[in-house]
Design a protein that fits this description.
heterodimer; A: about 240 residues; Rossmann fold; 7-stranded mixed beta sheet; 4-stranded antiparallel beta sheet; about 30% helix; globular; B: 2 domains
């Protein structure tokens, strides 16, 4: 099976304290998973390791079957990975909505015509065309989140990493985000505390424990509930 | 309509250009002339609903100017004191009225649209962004102090709290800078902030204000001082 992310025996510590050991995780092509766990257990850290923002201490990480041995290896993969920050304000790199959405495309060398066309389309798809000329910092929390998501989607990444995407969103906006994410046909890893939200979006839920990742199929979005530990050397996925 | 501008509909680009033109001309000319009041009157008319808040801000800014003016009065240099007072107030009034309702991002957008060097534009925008975020942290911390019953006094607890507060702001600023670096890495930033806009649309108010300002600077009649 084609894999977007393949992690084997990954161990990480923070300030000398081990967060987890021997984490093994496979994310298949177009598979949507969630990572949950208590505060400070290293959910965002794991996401940052997958995004190439920090290096792992032990273990191996492959993205699209390419081994990521050092942080430089991620440079070639940047256009394939979309990362949504927990606080959208940290993500914006241009003052106006349409300029920020188009940023990664233009930085990647796309022409202005192409960037303009794609920006218009993505803003339309997300139902936020009316925000195109607004200043990003004048928007509400929900609008900011959608603009940040548009900025991620515009590069058509194969893998999306979403860090607490429902942070600061009201119920209506959460449902809108669920609708958008369910339509997206890409590999998605969501880090969240919001159980109701992730159950509506993902197929598998992984819980971070000191021993590794504990996987369960999402009862609302999978065939049936199933538990097994992913703390061993080989990786696999089961759907019965 | 360009939604980066506020009422009156003066675009940030025009505001920045006219602010530079007017302030440098008024600051560098030997005398002040009556026509220099024309753009102030026009802007005052544009901003008639916000005049009170503009004058309040001008009053506070004048406390600093008062120190300079008083030092000149002390030396019995009355003409120079009046010139400094008028010159500073002309420039401040013009800028305050021009940028009333606009924030730091409007200036960043104006720099962007004026095609100023990328490094300068980027640094200004990221500084504006940092100030905006730190301002938010500041008001959050202030609210926390209020709800926890803190009342500032001249005692060691207040000094310690304030010192801790400044420390927290530094730490938050550092955290934000790390996050900005991560965003830059992830989004392929390479020293340039891009814009999709090809040309800048100017409003009638832009044209009128630009004409009056240029005319007022060229029409050197009726020296005030």
């Amino acid at each position: 099976m084609s894999c977007s992310v393949n992690i084997k025996n990954l161990s990480t510590s923070r300030d000398g304290v081990c967060l987890y050991e021997n984490v093994t995780l496979d994310v298949s092509h177009k598979e949507k998973i969630a990572i949950i766990g208590p505060n400070g257990c290293g959910k965002t850290t794991l996401l940052e390791i997958i995004a190439g923002l920090r290096s792992q201490e032990m273990g191996t990480l492959e993205l699209f079957h390419q081994p990521m041995l050092k942080l430089d290896d991620f440079k070639a993969m940047r256009h394939l990975i979309g990362y949504l920050f927990q606080d959208s304000d940290n993500q914006f790199l241009a003052p106006i909505v349409e300029d920020d959405v188009a940023f990664s495309l233009l930085a990647g060398g796309a022409s202005k015509e192409e960037a303009r066309l794609k920006t218009t389309m993505i803003l339309q798809d997300l139902g936020i065309s009316h925000l195109a000329k607004k200043i990003v910092y004048h928007l509400s929390g929900g609008e900011k989140k959608l603009v940040a998501l548009a900025g991620v989607l515009i590069t058509e990444p194969k893998l999306m990493l979403l860090d607490e995407p429902t942070n600061g969103l009201d119920h209506a906006m959460q449902l809108r985000l669920v609708e958008i994410l369910c339509k997206i046909d890409k590999s998605i890893i969501i880090v969240s505390h919001h159980k109701e939200f992730i159950e509506l979006v993902v197929e598998k839920i992984y819980e971070i424990t000191p021993e590794g990742l504990k996987c369960s199929l999402n009862p609302k979005n999978g065939s049936h509930h199933h538990h097994h530990d992913h703390t061993h050397d080989h990786s696999h996925s089961h759907t019965h | 309509m360009d939604q980066t501008q506020t009422s009156p509909h003066i675009t940030p680009t025009t505001a920045l250009l006219l602010a530079l033109l007017y302030s440098s001309s008024v600051a560098l000319q030997e005398h002040l002339y009556t026509p220099m009041l024309l753009p102030l009157l026009l802007l005052g008319w544009f901003q008639k609903e916000s005049l009170l808040s503009i004058f309040k801000r001008l009053f506070f800014l004048n406390t600093l100017i008062a120190i300079v003016v008083l030092s000149m009065l002390w030396q019995k240099n009355y003409d120079l004191a009046l010139l400094v007072f008028l010159r500073s107030n002309f420039i401040l009034m013009f800028i305050l009225m021009l940028f009333q309702g606009k924030d730091e991002f409007a200036i960043a957008i104006a720099m962007h649209r004026l095609r100023l060097p990328h490094k300068l534009t980027s640094i200004f925008f990221f500084t504006a962004k940092s100030i905006f975020l730190i301002k938010r942290e500041f008001s959050l911390f202030k609210n926390t102090l209020h709800v926890r019953g803190f009342t500032p006094k001249t005692n060691i607890l207040t000094y310690k709290t304030m010192a801790g507060f400044v420390g927290i702001l530094f730490i938050k600023a550092l955290e934000r800078s790390v996050l900005l670096q991560k965003a830059m890495q992830l989004r392929g930033y390479c020293g340039e902030v891009y814009t999709l806009e090809e040309h800048q649309a100017f409003t009638k108010q832009d044209t009128l204000l630009a004409l009056i300002t240029i005319l007022s600077l060229l029409w050197r009649q009726g020296a005030l001082i």
